[in-house]
Structure formats: C-alpha cells, structure tokens
Design goal:
Largest sheet: 5 strands, parallel, barrel
Order of helices and strands: HEEEEEEEEEEEEEEEEEEEEEEEEEEEHE
Distance between the termini: 90 Å
Low-confidence stretches: 1-18, 35-42, 375-388
Structural class: mainly beta
Strand content: over 45%
Radius of gyration: 30 Å
Number of strands: 28
Number of helices: 2
Mean pLDDT: 85
Shape: globular
C-alpha cells in the first residue's frame, strides 16, 4: 500500500480581486499623504525668556483678525504662546533708559483721521481732515538705567497669549485690528495703540495710555493711578473702576463710567458728538455740560446728593458731601449723571434708553468674548519661536 499524500488545492484563484484590494489600500494611503501635505502640520508652541526686573515688553501684531491676551505672573520670565502656522519673531536686548535715545517718557504721535464731508465752494463735498494731537506720557515708577527689552513681532491673523512678570516696567501693545485683552496686569506702565477692534482691561492695576481709533474700550474691576484714553469713533465703557487721574476723550464715540470711584486728581471725560454717562460710588462733585444736548440727572435720595440745574445743558451734582471734581463735557451729545450703577436702575424713559443699551451691549460682549487657546503641540513635535 502506498501512503496517502497531502491533498493539493487545484481550484481557481481570483487574482484580480486580491490585486484590487491592494490597489484600494495603496490609493487610500496616497490620499491621506496628499491631504497631509496640503493641510500641513498643526503647529503650536511656546517659549519663555528669563528677564531682569522691570522688563520692557513691546508686542507688535500686524494686520487684522488678531486675538491677543496678556496675563501676569510672579515668575521673572516672559512667555509667548501662539496657535498659528507662523511663529512670531521674538528678540531680546538691553537698553539704557534715561537718556536722549531712550527717555523716561512715551512720545505719542499725532493721529490723523477724516471727519464728515463738508461743502467747499467750487469743489463740492470733501472729507474734512482732523487729528488727535501729539502728547507726552511720562513713565510712572520706572527707574533709569539698563533694562531687558523683549520685542514680539507677529503677523496678521495671530492668536497669542503673552504672560509677563508682575514687576514689568513697561508693556506696549501695538496692533492693527484685534481683540486685545489685558488681564490681571500689575506692571508699572501700560500702552495700547490699536487701529480697530476691542481693547479690554480686566482686573488691572497700573498707569495706562490707551488709543483705539475705531471700536470699543472696556475696562472692569481695575485701579488706575493714571489713565489716558483717546479715540476717534471708539466707545469707552468703564465698570467698577477706581481712578486717581483719568482723562478720556473721543471724537464721535460715547463714554460710560459706571459704578466707579475717584481719588483726588484730574478726572475729565469729553466727547464732541457722543454722549457721556457717569455713575459714581464715592463722594464727588460732578460737573456736566452739553453744548447742543441735555444734561440728565438721576440720584437716589439715600445718596445724599444735591443737584443744581442750570438750564438744559448744564448741571452740578454734589454727592456724599462733595469730593474730587469730575467733569463730563459733550459738544453735541447728552450728559448723564447718577449714583451707583445702571444695573440697579430699570428706568424705561426714552432719554436714558440709549445709554442703557450701550452699557449692556458692551458688558455682554466682554463676558462672551473667548480667550485664545493655543493648541498643544503633538507629542514629539511642535513649532518653536524664532529668537533674533
């Protein structure tokens, strides 16, 4: 007998079926690789630079569509986080302040703008030029001598979180169009120069100069040794702020200082065409004037306020027995003087409705505005900042 051998398979094999599966798999791999090449890697990163006491930080963000958040911490370092494909350029050098090249004062250049059209005989309607004048703003509590200067230069459409030491000497932010939030800043000096968008100062304690041409400035729960705010069409809204010296001016925008307090010092609010509303929680003397509008007052009897009304366009209110002189002047808008906050006043009178709407709109906008959150880099990867 012969031993039975192992049976062999002699059936048909569908070669094309197996080849098709291999082709489909290879095609999917190629498609994934092509999409990755087109979309590019998700880059995010951060870097921290150790700095000395009273560092000077210059943040320059160009173009529109930017989101900037500046925070403070107790570490002696400046940290920059970004969430874009292009990393910002960061440079550090030492500068000696207190001389002709680096004086202890910030020179504010003039800001040109076009006003409403006016009729010129023989020419017709042309835009009337205007300008915010040049100013000087001395640094506060900033010593002369050598300081570390960190410059952050970012491109249009950037999303940045910059964290600076609590002992920062000067923080200067220059941006085109942006949502800029300065949160918990405790440095000696703050400068913000922005063309359009929003500037928010939250829980800050500093000396500050803010220039926003178009948009809105919102400050809440902040204390200012000195504050200068100016703009063209920008609205200025302050909530629960405490100011020793404050000067806020706008050409076309409105100004609301709600639930605020004042220490003895300069306090002046002025707008050419916008309305001004002042709500106070400390003893003051309020002086309201309007050239072509009205001055409205609303005080609770418990506030112990006395009001002297001089026609429709002028009123003087003494609150809590009197205190620092606070002036509100509008050429064509209305002036509103009251005690406390608009949040506790539900008046529906037509003359107060506009200022209520402005105040509530900016409070809601500030509360709903998201903070930029840089994406975390993937394990083993991620971009790095360029140091120059």
């Amino acid at each position: 007998m012969t031993r039975a051998g192992r049976r062999t398979y002699d059936g048909a094999v569908d070669v094309f079926q197996y080849r098709a599966l291999r082709w489909i798999t290879a095609g999917l791999v190629v498609l994934v690789l092509c999409m990755a090449a087109v979309l590019g890697p998700v880059r995010a990163g951060s870097n921290a630079l150790d700095v000395g006491d009273q560092v000077v930080v210059n943040l320059v963000v160009r173009g529109r569509g930017n989101e900037i958040t500046v925070r403070s911490w107790d570490r002696p370092s400046v940290q920059v986080e970004y969430a874009d494909e292009n990393a910002p350029v960061v440079g550090r050098r030492s500068v000696t302040f207190g001389n002709g090249r680096a004086p202890l004062v910030q020179q504010i250049p003039p800001q040109l703008y076009a006003m409403r059209e006016q009729q010129v005989p023989g020419i017709g309607a042309v835009p009337a030029p205007g300008a915010l004048p040049p100013e000087e703003f001395p640094y506060a509590e900033f010593r002369g001598g050598a300081h570390d200067v960190v410059r952050v230069d970012a491109a249009e459409g950037s999303r940045l979180i910059v964290t600076v030491p609590a002992s920062t000497g000067v923080l200067a932010v220059r941006a085109g169009g942006s949502q800029t939030t300065i949160e918990g800043y405790r440095g000696a000096n703050l400068f913000v120069f922005q063309n359009a968008g929003r500037v928010q100062l939250l829980n800050a304690s500093t000396t500050a100069f803010v220039q926003l041409n178009n948009g809105a400035v919102y400050a809440a729960d902040s204390t200012f040794e000195r504050l200068r705010v100016r703009g063209v069409t920008a609205h200025d809204v302050f909530e629960r702020c405490h100011s020793k010296q404050i000067e806020a001016t706008s050409v076309f925008g409105a100004i609301v200082y709600d639930g605020g307090a004042f220490d003895p010092g300069l306090a002046r609010f002025e707008s050419e065409t916008g309305s001004i509303a002042l709500g106070v929680t400390s003893p003051v003397q309020l002086n309201g004037r309007s050239g072509e509008g009205h001055v409205y007052t609303m005080f609770d009897r418990r506030a112990g306020a006395s009001v002297e009304q001089h026609g429709d366009g002028e009123a003087v209110a003494t609150v809590g027995g009197g205190g620092p002189l606070v002036s509100a002047i509008s050429t064509r808008g209305n002036v509103y003087l009251y005690d406390g906050t608009l949040l506790s006043r539900r008046t529906t009178s037509a003359e107060w409705r506009t200022v209520h709407q402005l105040f509530n709109a900016h409070r809601r906008t500030a509360a709903s505005a998201p903070s930029p959150k840089p994406r975390r880099p993937a394990a083993g990867g991620g971009g790095r900042l360029r140091l120059h």
